[in-house]
């Protein structure tokens, strides 16, 4: 009669070892990150810049509702690997959503966005009334 002795390590340790040996990059698959945003106030507008490499324009959704700007993205990726004995299919979903309360000085009707070389840029033009006015000389009567 043979006796099999099991280690006293917790069960999650066995599972962790199994998945680590099968798919070494699995920790990257489950990470979710919210991209950092650079916000610049310039003379005629505000500029929001998101670093979001590896996406396409169709992954993003930008909305303005009641002076709140929302930027979100959902990227889906499916990898399928075939072997003689099995098929392995992995799904990867990455998403984020950021919301910003816009100042009254922003002209929401003229907001524009552009995605180029991994940077999502959103231009928020200021209303005409909010733009700097030239110095006006006052005549003395």
Describe what this molecule looks like in 3D.
The chain has 141 residues and is mainly β. It has a single domain, classed as Sandwich (Immunoglobulin-like). The protein is built from 2 helices and 7 strands, in the order ααβββββββ. The protein has helices at residues 11-22, 26-29; strands at 37-41, 45-51, 60-65, 68-82, 87-101, 112-116, 119-125. Strands 1-2-7-6 form a 4-stranded antiparallel beta sheet, with no helix packed on it.
Tell me the radius of gyration.
26 Å
Number of helical runs? 2
Strand order of the largest sheet: 1-2-7-6
The overall pLDDT average reads 78
Tell me the span between the first and last alpha carbons.
116 Å
CATH architect. name: Sandwich
CATH fold annotation: Immunoglobulin-like
Give the percentage of residues in beta strands: 35-45%
Q: Quaternary arrangement of the chains shown?
A: single chain
Number of strand elements: 7
Key descriptive features of the protein:
141 residues; 4-stranded antiparallel β-sheet; mainly beta; 43% strand
Topology:
Blueprint: H1 11-22, H2 26-29, E1 37-41, E2 45-51, E3 60-65, E4 68-82, E5 87-101, E6 112-116, E7 119-125
Antiparallel strand pairs: 1-2, 2-7, 3-4, 4-5, 6-7
Quick recap of the structure?
This protein has 141 residues and is mostly beta strands.
């Amino acid at each position: 009669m043979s006796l099999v002795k099991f280690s006293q390590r917790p069960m999650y340790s066995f599972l962790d070892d199994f998945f680590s040996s099968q798919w070494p990059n699995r920790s990257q698959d489950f990470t979710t990150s919210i991209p950092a945003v650079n916000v610049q106030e310039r003379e005629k507008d505000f500029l929001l810049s998101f670093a979001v490499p590896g996406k396409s324009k169709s992954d993003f959704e930008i909305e303005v509702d009641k002076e709140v700007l929302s930027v979100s993205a959902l990227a889906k990726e499916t990898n399928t690997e075939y072997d003689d004995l099995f098929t392995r299919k992995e799904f990867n979903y990455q998403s984020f959503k950021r919301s910003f309360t816009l100042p009254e000085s922003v002209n929401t009707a003229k907001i524009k966005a552009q995605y180029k070389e991994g940077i999502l840029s959103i231009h928020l033009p200021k209303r005409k009334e909010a733009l700097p006015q030239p110095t006006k000389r006052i005549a003395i009567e």
